């Protein structure tokens, strides 16, 4: 039996059980949960980067959705909402701009 030791989506145990397999799992503490969300974000980001490298836009979009799901999960750990994150994002965009113009800074000369 494979050992995974990783955070999985909520319905994965149900899906495994329906395939007539047994599993062991446990509920993470808040501290453990945040650590595992972070690990999962890195995993999903690597999968997104791989999809981009392979020029597979369908997979890239799928991985972005996974990252967004993890952002939702992390927000709940910090007792905030996606709406609050969006407000903060908008405030930062108002003050510093977004990334729409694709500006790539080369250097700043210090006189």
Automatic annotation (TrEMBL):
Gene3D superfamilies: MazG-like (1.10.287.1080). Transmembrane segments: none annotated. It comes from the Bacteria. This is Phosphoribosyl-ATP pyrophosphohydrolase. It comes from Sporosarcina siberiensis. InterPro entries: MSMEG_1276-like_NTP-PPase_dom (IPR038735), PRib-ATP_PPHydrolase-like (IPR021130).
């Amino acid at each position: 039996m494979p050992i995974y030791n990783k955070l999985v989506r909520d319905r994965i145990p149900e899906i495994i059980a329906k395939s007539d397999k047994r599993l062991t799992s446990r509920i993470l503490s808040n501290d453990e949960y945040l650590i595992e969300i972070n690990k999962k974000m890195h995993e999903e980001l690597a999968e997104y980067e791989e999809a981009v490298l392979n020029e597979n836009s369908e997979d890239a979009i799928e991985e972005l959705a996974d990252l967004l799901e993890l952002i939702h999960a992390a927000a709940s750990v910090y007792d905030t909402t996606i709406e609050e994150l969006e407000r903060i994002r908008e405030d930062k965009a108002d003050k510093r701009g977004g990334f729409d113009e694709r500006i790539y800074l080369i250097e700043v000369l210090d006189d």
